[in-house]
Amino acid sequence: MTGQRWVVAALKASLVLLFGLLFLFQTMSLPGQFAHMAQESPDMAFLRGPATVITIFWVLCVQVVIVCIWQLLTLVQKDRIFSSTSMRWINLVLGAIGAAWLVLAGVFLYIGFNATDPGIPLVLALMVAVGAVVGLVVVVMRALLKQATTLRTDMEAVI
């Protein structure tokens, strides 16, 4: 149990660090980067606004997942991970992954139909596939958590 506490504490500290870095990235780096790219390539400057909004949205989706993981770790610490409360956080993770994946698929289709070089569409296709796999893994983990929650509830009813 001591090892579990240490891991949960280390993971929570890492989540705080990651969330803070993403916030800095979201508020300072991304808008400045796309402004710089618009200055360097004026013919692509029309993409500055949409690219900034979309990437900030993706970072926001990651931040939602971080908050949900934090809440799930708190449930682990309180030995309440096998409860209906955890299902709400898992559903929120699935919603964030699904929203980010849908936007990514839209970007892939837009760039795929307008690109002259196959490099970027291939990278986006890889990212769409990875996003789909991550989402499906979370769906499987959600089903396992639901089954374990049901078993624990049944055991507690017997005891």
| CA distance, first residue to last residue | 23 Å
Uncertain runs are none
The biggest beta sheet is recorded as:
none
Average the pLDDT over all residues and give the rounded result: 92
The computed structural class is: mainly alpha
The Rg value, from CA coordinates, equals 20 Å
Total DSSP helices: 4
Helix content: over 70%
The percentage of residues in β strands lies in under 5%
Overall morphology = elongated
Number of strands: 0
N to C succession of SSEs: HHHH
Write the layout of secondary structure elements.
Blueprint: H1 2-40, H2 48-77, H3 84-114, H4 119-158
Helix pairs in contact: 1-2, 2-3, 3-4
Fold and architecture overview:
Pfam families: DUF2975 (PF11188). The chain crosses the membrane at residues 53-77, 89-113, 119-145. This is DUF2975 domain-containing protein. By secondary structure, this protein is mainly alpha-helical. The chain is built from four helices and no strands. It has helices at 2-40, 48-77, 84-114, 119-158. The chain is elongated and about 70 Å long.
Keywords:
159 residues; mainly alpha; 4 helices; transmembrane; membrane; transmembrane helix; DUF2975 domain-containing protein
Write a short abstract of this structure.
With 159 residues, the chain is mainly α. It contains four helices and no strands. It starts with a helix and ends with a helix.
